[in-house]
């Protein structure tokens, strides 16, 4: 029996409870909250936001229930109350799932004095003080504090309260090596090295990165085993970032994460408005079947600035949540402090959650799909275990992502670890922005994909490898029909691309002899054996000085190929750009580069324009889902003044949008529903096998649902 077939009461305590936990409220208590907590207010918020799951502060740094564990400090205002238990009982009465939050990252002075072995240590062996709060000390995740004390806390919560899971925040340490005695002893025993310091050899750092990942993974297993032994359906799910399990030991922890909670609470600085959608896609690219939940703070987020009691603009809150769930990242909002100094967040959060509730019956049963995928290849040099945890993307990827959103080309992600013929089934174009370090087996998968008619669009050092004699080469060069003649040069100025041979990629540049080039380039040549199949739509103009102004002129004509397009005998098409196309588009936002990316992908798709097209003006993020005899297209309107920086302040409604969908042969009419607008009609199929569906007005979201 599936989770959907079980009675509601059984679903709440089922091992598959996470499948029906789709809209989350998180309340993070502060020390003074027990004296001010308005339980009825928060239960009303849960009703208004249609929440079916709750994450609530329980213990760790501070206990918000009457704990009996020594050095598990109770809130000073707890008295004889139990705020955790009161809110848990209220949420359960509403039929909600419950997750208990524990924070193991710091302890108070009394615990530090009694258990100095719990503390993180600096290079001099001194305890690491908390930077924000005097008298507080960072804990060491390798110590008995995490292994034993937090396990004891988790068991006390599971034994005393009706919860489905535990959630650990800031559980991985203070972001640097801890030189505590226990960690030093265990690291030497396991690796033979002393803990690495700033001047340590690379071998010690590589050993530490792998060792740390294993220790944290063993901690995940320990916590999860403990709570599951107590109550079979309960899980312990420590916080994750965009890297999911990549910075842990996946063979240890993959089965410990039936769902992922990604802590990316809002936009930082110049992050674009489509960031939450990418989080959903990236997770699905590695774990397509596992639910992912995206945490959204009700207040502004920044790497440097902290206003945890503030409130974001209404448009930012709704847009962030909606773009996330349109691409599969389920909504979870978090409020720090139960007392509200500003309630302007409630209705925007409720509006976004109501939209999810409205669309969920359709979106949840259909499978996200796209004929274009971006290969997800996060880099790590192995020497900084915290770099991978950030999950930050490169400008190469950002530029391709932005260009495809602008072009309204639906696309998904595919993790390079999951690259296989099976995962490429139904895909027509694979996009490799840069830096994919593919091994021989992965390169063969891509080669076979093209031989079967697939397309590849790649740029810059995508698939560059080191051969047996130490020379760098383009790993997929034989597929693209090129050889590397010169390694990367740059940073360059005054680089241009001459429009060379006629080709569909060049359409749209009428009136130009050349367009802007990149700042980093590779030298390539067309391989003789591929010459008959290759076209060179663009060549590099030799770069020249930018000062003095009198020296600003080209010294020669077009030279080596810059963009190479190849049509393969089996019908597959490949495009390779020998410069930092995605990166320079992201940094300079030159329209010609966006057009080059979009035109390359469209040409690689072949003569068939694809199953779904969305026409009209404005910045619209498109998501497609498919089922048996049905299709849904979500349109998220990101057209707003701050789409590329800061908080959204006004989403600008769009008119005259049109969705074109190709339906199976023999289908002459389809039933169409606009889920948000609430309209329904039957539409005839055109002679070209497509239905044309106008969207007269697009506010923030519309989901066009077809069945036949």
From TrEMBL:
Q: Which SUPFAM superfamilies does this one have?
A: (Trans)glycosidases (SSF51445), Class I glutamine amidotransferase-like (SSF52317)
Top-rank taxon of the source lineage equals Bacteria
Q: Name the Pfam families on file.
A: GHL6
The protein, known as: Family 10 glycosylhydrolase
Q: Which lineage ranks, top first, belong to the organism behind this chain?
A: Bacteria, Bacillati, Actinomycetota, Actinomycetes, Pseudonocardiales
């Amino acid at each position: 029996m599936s989770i959907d077939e079980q009675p509601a009461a059984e679903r709440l305590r089922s091992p598959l409870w996470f499948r029906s936990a789709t809209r989350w409220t998180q309340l993070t208590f502060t020390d003074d909250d027990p004296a001010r907590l308005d339980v009825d207010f928060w239960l009303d918020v849960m009703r208004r936001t249609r929440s079916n799951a709750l994450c609530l502060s329980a213990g760790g740094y501070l206990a918000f229930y009457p704990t009996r564990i020594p050095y598990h400090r109770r809130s000073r205002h707890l008295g004889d109350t139990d705020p955790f238990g009161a809110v848990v009982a209220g949420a359960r009465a509403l039929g909600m799932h419950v997750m208990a939050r524990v924070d193991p990252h710091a302890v108070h002075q009394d615990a530090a004095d009694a258990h100095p072995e719990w503390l993180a240590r600096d290079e001099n062996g001194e305890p690491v003080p908390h930077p924000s709060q005097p008298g507080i000390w960072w804990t060491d995740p390798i110590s008995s504090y995490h292994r034993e004390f937090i396990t004891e806390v988790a068991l006390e919560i599971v034994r005393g309260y009706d919860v489905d899971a535990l959630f650990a925040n800031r559980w991985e340490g203070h972001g640097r090596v801890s030189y505590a005695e226990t960690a030093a002893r265990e690291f030497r025993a396991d690796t033979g090295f002393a803990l690495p310091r700033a001047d340590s050899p690379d071998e010690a750092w590589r050993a530490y990165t792998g060792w740390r990942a294993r220790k944290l993974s063993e901690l995940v297993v320990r916590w999860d085993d403990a709570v599951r032994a107590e109550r079979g359906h309960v899980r312990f799910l420590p916080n994750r970032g965009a890297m999911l399990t990549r910075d842990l030991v996946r063979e240890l922890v993959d089965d410990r994460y039936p769902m992922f909670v990604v802590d990316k609470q809002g936009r930082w600085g110049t992050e674009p408005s489509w960031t939450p959608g990418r989080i959903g896609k990236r997770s699905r690219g590695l774990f397509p079947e596992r639910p992912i939940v995206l945490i959204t703070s009700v207040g502004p987020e920044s790497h440097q600035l902290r206003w945890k009691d503030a409130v974001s603009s209404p448009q930012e809150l709704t847009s962030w949540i909606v773009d996330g769930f349109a691409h599969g990242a389920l909504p979870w909002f978090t409020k720090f402090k139960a007392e509200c100094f500003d309630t302007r967040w409630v209705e925007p959060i409720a509006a976004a959650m109501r939209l999810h509730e409205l669309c969920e019956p359709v979106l949840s049963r259909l499978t996200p799909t796209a004929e274009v995928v971006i290969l997800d290849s996060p880099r790590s040099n192995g020497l900084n275990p915290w770099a991978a945890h950030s999950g930050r993307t490169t400008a190469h990827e950002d530029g391709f992502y932005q260009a495809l959103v602008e072009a309204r080309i639906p696309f998904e992600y595919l993790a390079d670890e999951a690259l296989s013929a099976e995962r490429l089934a139904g895909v027509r174009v694979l996009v490799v922005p840069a830096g994919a370090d593919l091994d021989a087996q992965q390169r063969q998968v891509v080669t076979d994909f093209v031989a079967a008619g697939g397309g590849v669009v790649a740029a810059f050092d995508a698939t560059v490898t080191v051969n047996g004699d130490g020379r760098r080469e383009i790993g997929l060069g034989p597929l693209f029909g090129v050889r590397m003649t010169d390694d990367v040069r740059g940073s360059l100025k005054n680089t241009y691309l001459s429009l060379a041979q006629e080709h569909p990629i060049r359409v749209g540049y009428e009136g130009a002899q050349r367009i802007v080039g990149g700042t980093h380039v590779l030298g390539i040549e067309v391989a003789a054996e591929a010459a008959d199949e290759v076209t060179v739509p663009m060549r590099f103009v030799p770069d020249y000085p930018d000062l003095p102004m009198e020296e600003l002129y080209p010294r020669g004509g077009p030279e080596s190929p810059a963009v190479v397009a190849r049509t393969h005998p089996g019908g597959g098409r490949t495009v390779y750009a020998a410069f930092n196309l995605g990166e320079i588009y992201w940094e300079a936002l030159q329209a010609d580069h966006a057009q080059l990316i979009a035109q390359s992908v469209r040409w690689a798709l072949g003569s068939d324009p694809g199953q779904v097209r969305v026409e009209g003006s404005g910045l619209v993020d498109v998501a497609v889902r498919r089922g048996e005899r049905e299709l849904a297209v979500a349109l998220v309107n990101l057209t707003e003044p701050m789409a590329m920086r800061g908080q959204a302040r006004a989403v600008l409604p769009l008119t005259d949008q049109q969705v074109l969908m190709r339906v199976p042969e023999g289908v002459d009419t389809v039933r169409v529903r606009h889920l948000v607008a609430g309209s329904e009609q039957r539409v005839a199929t055109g002679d070209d096998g497509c239905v044309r569906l106008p969207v007269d007005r697009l506010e923030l979201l519309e989901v066009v649902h077809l069945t036949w």
